[in-house]
Design goal:
The complex is a heterodimer of chains A (113) and B (116). Chain A is an all-beta fold and 113 residues long. Chain A is 0% helix and 53% strand. In chain A, strands 2, 4, 5, 6, 9, 10 and 11 form a 7-stranded mixed β-sheet that branches. Chain A has a 4-stranded antiparallel β-sheet with strand order 1-3-8-7, with no helix packed on it. The radius of gyration of chain A is 13 Å and the shape is globular. Chain B is mostly beta strands. Chain B has no helices and 12 strands. The chains are: A mainly beta (113), B mainly beta (116). The interface between A and B is medium-sized, with 26 and 23 residues.
Chain lengths: 113, 116
């Protein structure tokens, strides 16, 4: 158990819908990262927050957004869902933004029908 | 731009054999960090090791060992006396030390199957 929690574990929804994925980092970790894992794209970085502030953006679609709240939990919002958004979404946390090992949550498997 | 290459897509070995997973990386930074993660069939990503660019000492942890060579930009992972529980996908990853590039850039992974 990494100490990072993600809910829900599975999510099945229809095209055009909007969903919210939730992540709670390990106690004491200030950095949160979101990654997407799909068969065709592999593991791709989406976005990083550090102590409530957005720090870096990767291959994140405009239909996706995220935030980190004062209690350091984070949410990833995916809207206008398409079939291609079906993937495993991981949240990771680390104590600092630079060079620290990132510990991953169990992931949320999103299926868009 | 940073890049990680894991040329071995799939490897199968018989239990108790040794196996080495290759990882080659590209970065323009002089300060960077290298990682290995394991993804068992259950799907979670398990942290195995972190190395910074200034520490080229090889590391051994039980049956696992890592060989970091800056001259060849490689960070290879060896499992000695493999066991069925080692069956998983293994990812090598790189992060840089400059603001905005601290994300992990992953290789495509090597699927390791240990045959009993």
């Amino acid at each position: 158990d990494s100490g990072v929690t993600q809910t829900p574990k599975h999510l099945i929804t229809a095209t055009g819908q909007r969903v919210t994925l939730r992540c709670s980092p390990r106690s004491g970790d200030l950095s949160v990262y979101w990654y997407q894992q799909s068969l065709d794209q592999g593991l791709q970085f989406l976005i990083q927050y550090y102590n409530g502030e957005e720090r870096a953006k990767g291959n994140i679609l405009e239909r996706f957004s995220a935030q980190q709240f004062p209690d350091l939990h984070s949410e990833l919002n995916l809207s206008s869902l398409e079939l291609g958004d079906s993937a495993l979404y991981f949240c990771a946390s680390s104590v600092g933004p630079t060079g620290a090992e990132q510990f991953f949550g169990p992931g949320t498997r999103l299926t868009v029908l | 731009a940073q890049k990680v290459t894991q040329a071995q897509t799939e490897i199968s070995v018989v239990e108790k054999e040794d196996v080495t997973l290759d990882c080659v990386y590209e970065t323009r930074d002089t300060t960077y960090y290298l990682f290995w993660y394991k993804q068992p069939p259950s799907g979670e990503l398990v942290f195995l090791i972190r190395r910074n660019s200034f520490d080229e000492q090889n590391e051994i942890s039980g049956r696992y060992s890592w060989n970091f060579q800056k001259s060849t930009s490689s960070f290879n992972f060896t499992i000695t006396a493999s066991q069925v529980v080692d069956s998983a996908v293994y990812f090598c990853a790189l992060s840089e030390a400059n603001f905005g590039n601290e994300k992990l850039t992953f290789g495509t992974g090597t699927r390791l199957t240990i045959i009993p």
